[in-house]
Specification:
68% helix; single chain; mainly alpha
Amino acid sequence: FPWKLLNMYQTWLISYSGLLGAVGGVIICDYAVIRKTVLNPKDLYKEDGDYTYTDGFNRKALIALAGGIVVALMGKLHSNLAFLFNGAWFSAAFISFAVYYFLMWKRI
């Protein structure tokens, strides 16, 4: 198995960039658009602060993350969508940004 990973290292790197692109899209949207570059460090330590979510997880961010990853990896499954996989970071970042913005628009 490890030797197969060396033969397809480029595919692994592109897949990994799709994951990181989705994370980046959520972070950029949350910081630049939702919070308007204003952070409140004191609320990090409060149980009812700005950064408190249900069960400790921001479910909307997880949904946006999953959406970005799925769209980026769809290009690997269908040849007509190969451009999504070849630009996995950008496609994942764009989709996760858009989904997170749509889910969080009430906080703006």
